[in-house]
TrEMBL record:
GO terms for molecular function: dioxygenase activity; metal ion binding. GO terms for cellular component: nucleus. Keywords: Dioxygenase, Iron, Metal-binding, Nucleus, Oxidoreductase. This is Fe2OG dioxygenase domain-containing protein. It is found in: Nucleus. Residues 143-245 form the Fe2OG dioxygenase domain. Gene3D superfamilies: Alpha-ketoglutarate-dependent dioxygenase AlkB-like. The keyword Iron applies.
Length: 262
């Protein structure tokens, strides 16, 4: 499952549904006078955020899958509260929120399908992005410029998926609010590879605790699908931070356009 394509199709479906319910006169009025951006777009940095020092991420590796790392208690309680407050500063009826069947989300940094027009991150997300560079998880060239904020209620989930070629193969996920279970399972494309040519277990699942950081790259990114479930109570807010590689995104779009004419 290509998550970026799934998200794009869901956005189109919601837009079509909204247009079909809106009278022509009202729709014309809305288009002629777009909404003013809310104050949440202009908020500054987080009130509580500690500058990070370099961290040896190998200390936190999950040995069963190369490139998979898990750091419990990566952020403090005050930092968690500050993040959640910024997420919910976006009004529930604002277009920034996208409601899916088993979760809802905010997307910052622009649509993957429109990579020729990237958007600037709000200051508070830029602050978190910079801290991942300070910790040496990312470097300056591939600093996260794209953030997906997911809200999961009790029983919500996301099916096994891959993040795809539009991103640098390195992901950091901050978890707040509630625990959940993450599962990594070997991608079907690797099923036929002999054991002596493929390092890593068939699958692994473990709890993502509040205030933890999950990082995955290398084989964990390219050879495994990942999924989220088992939100038993409360509301989980996760921040998925990635670097969108604009040139690769454009190449992918051009390739998909060519396929439509074959």
């Amino acid at each position: 499952m290509d998550f970026s394509q799934l998200l794009l199709e869901e956005r189109r479906r919601l837009c079509d549904a909204n247009r079909s319910k809106t009278p022509t006169v009202a729709r014309t009025k809305l288009l002629s006078k777009p909404k003013e951006p809310g104050v949440f777009l202009h908020q500054g940095q987080l009130n509580f955020w500690t500058k990070r020092s370099p961290i040896d991420i190998e200390v936190f590796s999950k040995d069963s899958i190369p490139g998979l790392y898990y750091i419990p208690d990566y952020i403090t309680h005050n930092e968690e509260v500050a993040i959640v407050n910024r997420v919910y500063a976006v009004p529930v009826d604002n277009d920034r929120w996208v409601k899916l069947k088993h979760r809802r989300l905010q997307l910052w940094g622009g649509e993957v399908a429109t990579s020729e027009d990237p958007k600037t991150l709000p200051e508070w997300l830029e602050q978190i992005s910079e801290s991942l560079v300070d910790a040496t998880f990312f470097n300056k060239e591939n600093k996260p410029n794209h953030v997906l904020i997911n809200e999961y209620g009790k029983g919500d989930y996301i099916l096994p998926h891959e993040d795809g070629p539009a991103y640098c193969p390195l992901v950091a996920i901050l978890s707040t609010g509630a625990e959940c279970r993450v599962k990594f399972e070997r991608h079907r494309a690797t099923n036929g590879i002999a054991n002596n040519r493929f390092e890593g277990t068939e699958f692994i699942n473990f709890q993502l605790e509040r205030r933890s950081l999950l990082v995955f790259t290398r084989e964990a990114y390219t050879s495994y699908l990942h999924s989220i479930d088992n939100v038993l109570e409360g509301t989980r807010i996760s921040l998925t931070l990635r670097h969108q590689e604009l040139e690769k995104g454009l190449e992918k779009e051009a390739h998909e356009r060519q396929l439509k004419h074959v």
